[in-house]
Specification:
Layout lengths: L13 H7 L3 E2 L9 E2 L12 H9 L5 H4 L2 E3 L3 H12 L2 H10 L7 E3 L5 E2 L1 H6 L8 H10 L22 H8 L2 H9 L14 H7 L3 H9 L7 H6 L3 H8 L5 H13 L3 H9 L15 H5 L4 H12 L9
Parallel strand pairs: 3-4
Antiparallel strand pairs: 1-2, 4-5
Helix pairs in contact: 4-5, 5-7, 7-9, 8-9, 8-10, 10-11, 14-15
Length: 313
């Protein structure tokens, strides 16, 4: 949880998700949830005895079902990851020419969990150079747009996410648009919060949230509509006698999204001004004082570069 009050996105790396499985929930629905952060693990040499034991222990999977699979420390997998992070389109084209099956390969980690090259492109913090172009390149070579991360082998479950879930958690709207243009399913459930729209709203990723709604994502929760300022839809979802908890939850998210008219409407419907969710810290005032994920991402990036505030002189 960051200082914003908005649920902080899972600052995962694909390495961590591959190694430890999907991001875990620590509370149940409804509404966004906070997440447990897996720790990054040290790399293991692809020729080490540990790697060989890991390969031997993986579940036997049919080639038709899973296609190509690689340990995440295989030299090709490492080269692909570095090329994605650098935005090196030519290197990725070369890797795909040498082995087109790499586009849909399962990159399998120490714990047996797996992701795909599209998960690499959409991984936190997002905004990798040439991300949309790399997405299109992978799709054109046969990448599975709706592949889910797995906890072990082919096992999926709550917390398993598609590449679009990932993009919706960093607010990388250009990559999200490339995925949707390529045919990604916008309603896949059971991500770290739920659908891609659940993720986008819950993590304060407003650009992707609005893109998803524009492309037809279902706004079927009052806190969705409130956070996005969709007053007509909000009235429809609340109905004549909504539960008090739903009204206060929607109010909190309206404030998180900077939607004053929605917030005023919800106060008139009886929202608790100082209600606090059990999946985030702080009241509506704390949420309103926060930054969206995109702004927090840029602030972190500037600090990594050594930028300083004028006020710090």
């Amino acid at each position: 949880m960051g200082n914003s009050g908005i649920v902080s996105p899972p600052h995962r790396t694909v390495d961590a998700v591959i190694a430890y499985g999907p991001v875990l929930k620590n509370v149940t629905q409804p509404g966004p949830v906070s997440v447990l952060q897996p720790q990054r693990r040290p790399a293991v040499s692809s020729s080490s005895p540990e790697t060989l034991r890991r390969l031997a222990s993986w579940p036997r999977m049919s080639e038709q079902k899973t296609g190509k699979w690689l340990p995440d420390d295989d030299p090709v997998a490492v080269e692909l990851r570095l090329a994605v992070h650098a935005g090196d389109v030519e290197a990725i084209q070369r890797l795909l020419r040498n082995d087109p099956a790499l586009a849909s390969a399962r990159l399998v980690g120490r714990g047996g969990g797996s992701g795909t090259p599209l998960h690499l492109v959409t991984d936190w913090p997002g905004y990798f150079p040439n991300g949309p172009e790399i997405v299109q390149l992978l799709i054109g070579t046969g990448a599975d747009l709706n592949a889910l991360t797995t906890s072990r082998g082919t096992e999926t479950g709550p917390g398993s996410e598609t590449p679009l879930h990932y993009a919706a958690s960093s607010d990388d709207v250009d990559v999200a648009e490339a995925l949707i243009e390529g045919g990604a399913d916008i309603e896949v459930p059971d991500g770290s919060i739920g659908t891609p729209l659940d993720n986008a709203v819950g993590y304060g990723c407003w650009h992707v949230a609005r893109l998803l709604v524009t492309r037809g994502a279902k706004v079927d929760k009052a806190w969705h509509a409130a956070a996005l300022g969709m007053l007509g839809r909000l009235e429809e979802l609340l109905g004549s006698e909504p539960p008090a908890e739903d009204v206060s939850q929607a109010f909190w998210h309206a404030c998180a999204g900077g939607q004053r008219r929605a917030a005023e409407y919800l106060l008139s419907r009886g929202a608790d001004l100082n209600w606090e969710p059990d999946y985030a810290h702080g009241t509506a005032l704390d949420a309103a004082n926060g930054l969206g994920t995109r702004q927090e991402n840029v602030i972190s990036w500037l600090r990594e570069l050594g930028a300083r505030s004028a006020g710090s002189d």
